[in-house]
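Lesson 9: reading folded outputs for more than one chain in a single document. The general rule is that every protein is listed as its sequence immediately followed by its structure tokens, and records are never interleaved. Here is the first one.
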Amino acid sequence: MTSPVLNGRERFKQHLRKVGSGEHTSKGMSREEAADALELMLHQDATPAQIGAFLIAHRIRRPEPQELTGMLDTYRKLGPVLHSAPGQRPPLCFGMPYDGRTRTAPIYPLTTLVLLACNQPVVLQGGERMPIKYGITAIELFRSLGLDLRGLPLETVQDGFHNQGFALIHQPDHFALAESLITYRDELGKRPPVASLELLWTAHRGDHRLISGFVHPPTESRAWEALKLAGETDLYTVKGLEGGTDLPIGRACITARVQGEQTERLILHPRDHGCHAADVEWTDLTTWQAQAMDALQNRGPLQDSLRWNAGVYLWFAGLSESLETALEQATSVMDQGLALQQLDQLCSCLSIR
């Protein structure tokens, strides 16, 4: 346990010794120690040299599940909080890399609109462009569709979530403490363990279904254990495009359902449902905007990707009894322009505030 006598820098030095020792002497931190270490970093009670050394050492050793849970405890303690309205359907909460996308065209803003058109609440999160990828962000994508979500107070986001079922937690606006670690990402040139945390954390409190992206199988198994320790027992893990939650249509989709003590592997084949094609490459925001508006009307190069993603997530949300009926539901929403109407509604509500 952490001694209450030591000041922040001395406590952090003890944490650093545990993760920064050699191969045979390095030790994992307890959940409480990991929570304390992250809190000391966020409050800048540790020195820049200590923080940089910790982040790179912890990345090399790889965070253990209880360490990720401790870090998650700190984000829950210090970060923003959202609540559902009484009687509101539990949201899908998506965890994807904060440093954005650079290779494939994002689908999740469009999937969100289809889900909202089906009365399925959605919580997203992210920030501004950040290292190491400096990829396109959720804020930029929604803004290109006419929905400017930057600069909103948390109270406004909460009201919008109650009324429209949609919230985007924007780190610079809603979690300034976490912004303090971004410069270290750039200086180290590597994603720190906090990047793994961002896939597991959600600001929403209460009943929800978490969707967490991953790239490597060890990351997925650590996520299962860390989230179990944290009490998150209703989730899907997704090997999505660029480590996010967008499901590919160019290959089989590797996912897993975790519910209570049970974990079930789900391999989904877009080819079996008429959605197989090459995943669309990212080019620029202007091109994506045109493709996105077409897809919302069930046409254009993103059409199959949107149908597939919306259908799978409608099924994951429990709004359809089978994947086949969920895909039919998504197609109907797109054909009727209901997702586009949802976008117009969100833009109108935002302009009134």
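And here is the second record, again sequence then tokens.
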Amino acid sequence: MTAPQRLTDRKRQAIIQAAINEFRDNGFEITSMDKIAATAGVSKRTVYNHFPSKEELFAEILNQLWIRVTAEQETAYRPDLPLRDQLRVLLTAKLQMLGDDNFLDLARVAIAATIHSPERAQDMVARMGEREEGLTVWIRAAQADGRLKAVAPEFAAQQIHGLLKSFAFWPQISMGQPSLSAEEQNTVADSALDMFLGYYQL
């Protein structure tokens, strides 16, 4: 990669980080491209070269959020390993991602902006629905192997996500509670595993 390309990439990341900070601190409606440029230490023209509008810049932030959500450790189903051991790897990766401060900042921005614009929320949900995540794929494979009860894999995956997020996402987003410690993450993961496998494992 040439030096100019690296500089361009650095400026793009600086713009995105500045936008996250501004959206988080001031909300979507109040944040201006001028302020984002000033915070990023670049010209307004540079911001517009990378992102033609505030909406497109926000869409890129949502895209990065979704990449982080779906970049959780992909674990292919293994018929030769205990279900609990395999599922624990997936849940641990999810809890680590949910505890990441940058991820929580992005989530706050996205939630605040979508509350004020149902159209934006619909677009976000549609974008997320385009890509099936690892846990759903894993559940489907375990069902096909006759080791989990037959239920819609998406439904079962959403259930286990709910068990995690009630401790490791919503209290932090809505009440400003600190991220879970490693010990607390283990407790939440073990409890979710007990409940999920206690009901679904054959």
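What the second record shows: The chain has a mean pLDDT of 87.
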